[in-house]
Predict the structure.
Amino acid sequence: MTGWWPRGLARRHVVERFASDTLRAAGAVLFASLIAGVVIAALGFSPVEAIRALLAGSLIGPAALTATLLKTGPLLLTGLAVALCFRCGVWNIGAEGQLYAGALLATLVATRWLVGAPAVLVLPCLILAGALGGALWAAIAGALRVMRGVNEVISTILLNFVAIQLVSLAVHGPLQESAGAYPQSDALAQAARLPELARIHLGIPIAVLLALAGSFLLFHTAAGFRMRAVGLSPVAARFAGIVPERQLLLTICLAGALAGLAGAFEVSGVTGRLFESLSPGYGYTAIAVALLARLHPLAVVPSAFFFGVLEAGGGAMQREAGVPAVATDLVKGIVILLSIGFAAGVGGVRRVGPVARAPTSLSGPQADGEVL
Amino acid sequence: MSAARAGAALPLIELTAIDKSFVPQRPVLRRVDFDVRPGEIHALLGENGAGKSTLMNILIGLVRANAGAIEISGRPVDLARFGPSAAARAGISMVHQHSTLVPAMSVEENLCFADPSGGLLFDRRRAASRLAELSQRYQLDVPPGARVEDLSVGQRQRAEILRALDRGARLLILDEPTAALTPGETAALFPALRRLRASGRGVVFISHKLDEVEALADRVTVLRRGAVSGTLAAGELDARELGRLMLGRDLSALERPSASGGERSSPLMRLRGLSAAGLGGGCGLHDVDLAVHRGEIVGVAGIDGNGQRELEEVLAGVRRMDSGSLEVDGKPVRPHVRTLRSLGVSHLSGDRERAGLIPGFSLTENWILKASHSDERFFSHGLLRAATASEATRVAIAHFDITPADAAADVATLSGGNAQKLAVARELSGEPRLLVAVNPTRGLDVGSTRFVHEQLLALRARAAAVLLISTELDEVLLLADRCVALSRGRVHAIPADADRAAIGAIMLGGQGA
């Protein structure tokens, strides 16, 4: 049984695994595109024309490339959030809600608490607020899981809706712009906007750096080692003196911070305001991003870029070739299924399912009470 | 006497000279004869791995015998055609240890699944009246309308029996029915089983508890290593005899090492009055006193499910004691994984794949698994020192001759023997003062077993202590300087001069003998 989880430490294995994982990911993308092409053709459109329009809208020319990169940023951060959690056996489906929570707190800081403050003060505060908002939001699901045994798949999904409605409530009420015309926040002051170069805001290079940091954390630190141990076998981890509940909380908060950061960056770097449909579902696409990357933080970078292309090119495809943009969702869905299918086929379904809580005596109340 | 009356009737089912092997040359059952008569409770005894489960699976048609004959009420059946549905038609029904009812449904609704009239629709009211009638007749109480998940273990079991009866069971197989029951529930179950017997049904009763077998059974069949070592009638039951049948009498083949004569002044580790809650309705631990000295191997014998896992988990530091104390070097210790490790207590898990090693991690990652909190060699300032870790692993691989000799390979690719070598090597690497080893050779071949045994003896020779918790009596007798038996969560001393029959009787809970 050889899993799809990267795990060993020797260089040879890393290279081998990189090759086979890349091949698999490319295969998944190709196959998904092929099916999408067939569907597009069956709907009476020209697949060639559709792909041309998609690439023109996402890769060809500076404007298209910028659009793609701006989509890549939040996908990268949320994808990273999901990948870290899945590594630790925490099935966090709540990156979307954590993104909104981060955006909300960041907006609060920028438009209510630190109005008129200089950039050196407001920018770090805003970024921290984004991370904190996301982390706190994720901590709710983490705490429910650790203290009450609530399945985090359910709680994170439901908390998404709560966060989205909370933002809606905020922009219709306390955070609504002074003009009072639209359900949106005031525009962020220039001091609260992220510096940018050719419309590429600072958040995007930061996201890439965080991917590097995530990879370092997982594979080169004791904390990451413990996270991976818990993800593969919470029982064995407990026998080794690791407290799975603690790792779980830590990981989901870290992931929430990353997703919250994505929200703060969107508000401060792209839109300049908070409004209801801030994210076109980045936090959901993030699951596909993470799975296509086989949960490797570094691989999340190209994976996020690929979905950035789909996100940016989908609109162009609809405009230019008349193909509904949801065709890109088809690709997304098939990639997810294929990634999970590979995992199930190779590593056993066990690896994909949430970490079981019930079957071991070790997660019983006695053990919990003692270790927490 | 029901047994006498039943003697005349044709057996409900009769198995003759059944052979079964899953792998060629490794027979699980050898020429087993087994029959159940109407109006009889037939107990089945045997050690773990003696072939009880396989035999029962043949009875209910889940497993096909390789050779032999099966007759149902005197009529021979085709071995190849005897599957689950044929067994069900013959009225053979199994009550499993773990409930197979749908938890979210009521007992009545669970009966509807098996409605013999079988149409598309189900009649909940009719099911309810059948249930009431059956539960009244056999005194098997189940709260009507309650959902199965809200029932206690005992109630679930009664529901399970009622479902079997509702399906027209003539032969009921109960797999360790009392393992998860409270004494009160057990006491309530027995009259119901006797009523089943009186109604002319046959009951197969699998149990490890001698008093229960004595109280209920008309006949007892003992399996040992896949063969029937004896069948006794109710009148001939005797703890020593059953122990002998279960464990064999080849005592002379075993050689017990003489005690190493280390100073016996103060024990290295001592448990006083340890009690801990049971797992999943298990028996837990009650008032366990146990001491281990330097330079000795203390063996804890017993049949699985008598508190072994609870004891292991307490000593590994992952289970809380309800009362009692654990002392190391005479000082009380709060058992926690890291505390125990820092005191030189090492734990060789009895569940290699799940609790000992992590499949999916490389050999190196498994090697450093237990060090992720403390060991400065492999982790410094929160960083993983990969080079040091894989070097240490390579040394261990070479020293213990582990294949594949690749520190970066996935542990899941190792054979059981090699995986256990890795686990043993890891636990020994810190030169433990006390090793708690649980079923250290389960599933290993002869060579690997020998390796593990040598390592344990070598550890003892280095004046370390070993607590060997094993369900293999041979292993305990071979290695241990001193033995105790764990039975229903209590520790019973085994006298040094006890023979296997006596030990078997102690393990079965029949005191002394």
In short: Confidence is low (pLDDT under 50) at residues 1-10, 344-372 of chain A. The longest strand of chain A covers residues 196-197.
